[in-house]
From TrEMBL:
It comes from Halorubrum distributum JCM 10247. The lineage of its organism: Archaea, Methanobacteriati, Methanobacteriota, Stenosarchaea group, Halobacteria. This is KEOPS complex Pcc1-like subunit. It comes from the Archaea. Residues 87-113 are annotated as: Disordered.
Length: 113
């Protein structure tokens, strides 16, 4: 995945390069790896994910880049949601101290008569 060599799409005559900026570019690029084909090369340059596609036809490039951009957006959103979830969990853990008692509700208690 993190390969500087050109894509190996046989007799590819058309290439396109897409650069996108991300808070965690390395994780986004790693998430894209399983869907990468021989016609693609993805690398990380700081906070930028760089994907170069080489295909013999313009339609092939369009199709490959469309898939790449959808996968990129999904990866970025999942990572963002995971960070938000972890931050919220850390905030709720930090709010507790050793004197806090867990809140419980006893539903088996008989009413006083």
């Amino acid at each position: 995945m993190v390969d500087d060599a050109a894509p190996t799409a046989g007799d590819a005559k058309r290439t396109a390069t897409v650069r996108t900026t991300h808070a965690d570019a390395a994780t986004v690029a790693a998430a894209l790896g399983p869907d990468e084909t021989d016609s693609m090369r993805t690398r990380v340059d700081g906070d930028v994910v760089v994907c170069t596609v080489a295909r013999p036809t313009t339609g092939g490039i369009q199709s490959t880049l469309d898939d790449h951009l959808v996968n990129l957006r999904v990866a970025d959103r999942v990572i963002d949601r995971a960070r938000s979830h972890l931050a919220a969990a850390a905030d709720s853990t930090d709010a507790l101290d050793s004197t806090d008692e867990p809140q419980t509700t006893d539903t088996d208690t008989q009413p006083d008569t």
